[in-house]
Amino acid sequence: MSRRFAYVTLVTNADYAKGALALVRSLQHSGTEADIVVLHTGGATEQDLAPLAELGVLLLPADLLPTSDGFNQRHQRERLHAAAPFTKGNKPAFHTPLDNFAKLRLWEMTQYERCVFIDADAVVVKNIDRLFAYPEFCAAPNVYESVADFHRLNSGVFVALPSAATFAAMLEKLDAPDAFWRRTDQSFLEAYFPHWHGLPVFFNMLQYVWFNLPELWDWKSVCVVHYQYEKPWENDHPKAAQLAPLIALWQAFFSGERIDETLAGLTNPEPV
Ligand code: UDP
Ligand code: MN
Questions:
Q1: CA of 118 to the centre of ligand 2 (A)
Q2: Which of 119, 153, 210, 247 is 20 to 30 A from 140 (CA-CA)?
Q3: In a domain, 21, yes or no
């Protein structure tokens, strides 16, 4: 594949560097020839990024967006959690909502014709290079509980066309007076692309589907597993027992050990 295509992820601290390591190993295992780019802010040290550098990815330094003080205050972790509480799962302490918006820097990467963004807390279990032929803006629905979830997109996987004009227009809309994006980049992208193209859920299978909607899970179709809310590298999080097979899958990619055996041994959850 030519250098016109890239998978892009974002890392702003040591925890998400761990996530990105598993993601990058999974992308390389999928046999893609597209570039793999890790956007990283100053919150991730050279030491945090060293294992990623060893895998030969492109490490691209990025700043957080130049948003106003008012915007930054409104989206500060405690304030956002108070104004728009998370009732269905827990965000780890190392998750800073404001950092999410740096994803939009992907639109500045005009050296690429198309990019597929993937959250650092996801792994690819099958080649998804066909997404590079898809239009802007594609994302899968935010499904993890019920059919009502199909109204909303999840910004953990999306297809985008870098463009300086789009980036400038986005910044303007993003930081409009009093703008509050309750689910950060996700709410923003949904508003910016109201006619988003829906990908099948299998391109961004959210881990809670495993226990909430087990009949939807089908390893034959799942391409990306996304560990939304609690992260697979957190010690003993409250959902860890329920999610054990998915955590074992993530660990295989993280360690680089027994990947093929782990993939071959996957079985669908028992419908409840
Ligand atoms: N992110 C980051 N640092 C943060 C918060 C987010 O690097 O403090 C990046 C990282 O790529 C992460 C993505 O933004 O995967 C979105 O956050 P997260 O995946 O934690 O949100 P969730 O999927 O749980 O809604
Ligand atoms: Mn995520």
A1: 8
A2: 247
A3: yes
CB within 8 Å of 265: residues ≥ 6 apart: none
Sole residue written with tokens 């999080």: 237
Choosing from 7, 11, 95 the residue with most ligand 1 atoms within 8 A of its CB, the one to mutate for a pocket test is 95
**Dihedral sign, Cα of residue 10, residue 16, residue 21, residue 23:** negative
Taking the complete model, does pTM exceed 0.90, yes or no?
yes
Please give all residues whose beta carbon lies within 6 A of any atom in ligand 1, as ranges: 9-13, 16, 95-96, 99-100, 119-121, 156, 228-229
Q: How far apart are the first and last CA of the chain?
A: 42
pLDDT tens profile 106-165: 999 999 999 999 999 999 999 999 999 999 999 999 999 999 999 999 999 999 999 999
Q: Rounded to whole angstroms, how far apart are CA atoms 36 and 116?
A: 10
Bridge partners of 124, per DSSP, are: 224
CATH number at 140 reads: 3.90.550.10
In a domain? residue 145? yes
